[in-house]
Amino acid sequence: MFNFLSLEPETFGLDINDTSLKVVKLRKKRGFLRPVSFNEKNIPLGVIKDGIIKDEKALIKIIGELLSSVKGEKINTKYVVASLPEEKSFSQVIQMPKMAKEELKSAVPFEAENYIPLPADQVYLDFKEINPVTNHLDHLDVLVVAVEKVIADSYVLVLKKSGLIPVALEVETQAIARVLIKDETSLEPVVIVDFGGDSADFIVFSGYSVRFTSSIPVSSQQITNKISKDLGISLKEAEHMKKKYGISSIKTKSNHRTKAVKKSLTPILEELVKEIQKYLDFYSSQDFHEHFPDKPNKGGKIEKIILSGGGVNLKGIDEFLQKKLGVAVGFGDPWINFSESAKNSTLLDLQKESLSFTTAFGLAMRSMEK
Questions:
Q1: What is the CATH number of the domain that holds 349?
Q2: Are residues 312 and 347 in the same domain?
């Protein structure tokens, strides 16, 4: 529906991934945003695989069930901002000569062809100029994002067949950074690791923008599956044990179950560490054109990792990663850009699960932008 005396339609955010759908709708009251609707539905194995929609009819049905059973206010609008899979997108910071905005619109697509690993006619391309922290540059830094047309078109088609009107599509890493970085500004480079059910996203944010992203093929669901297989228990029980016992190194009275769970999940978490370290090393060895005032760090070395996503409810994952990587690790705060009253007035279930709704929050925040 439309707001009274406004020509702008109300819009909500829809996070779509291989294992679940999540929806969040925000409303601005007295100058502050607050969530008014949310919901989550699991997606059966095989409906979406590696970001590719395999069963269109099944996905449409789940979207309908998700929206018809939201918690909080009923969603009456059809306008949506939806996510696109990180593993099917490409992001790159490129340098361009200083030029007018209109010239930039024509020049960036030609320059971007040198970086995108697919033919230009097979991708949708978007970009934004990145403002420097120190404004004395002889060039422009531009963040380029490209998504395969066949992937984006398939998501649009499903949304339309679900009776929705997509007003924007956004790669999930952009939405995550919008939520977890205060005022979308960081004067030191920070890494966000979003550990989800189907994969983990590695994101470097620095200055006023995302600088580097990659999808890591390690997931929370892998851990659950392995515990289930190793211990001969159901997936539901394995998920419960994963959250209850985790990999905490805090000395507690252990039993055969704690040891068995730790034995199952350790190899997968070691692989996650290996992948994160690989990208930390790569990032520190590259020049990503971060123009900061002179500091010992110079914007290069990562000294902080923020965890988000449903997979971080694994007990002890923060201290495990910190010990292995030698970098400060902490949990993200999805409420950092909201008022305290907005958090306190939100339904309790969303407060408890807010880290797993990070992408949906970011899409909902994008939906509030003009």
A1: 3.30.420.40
A2: no
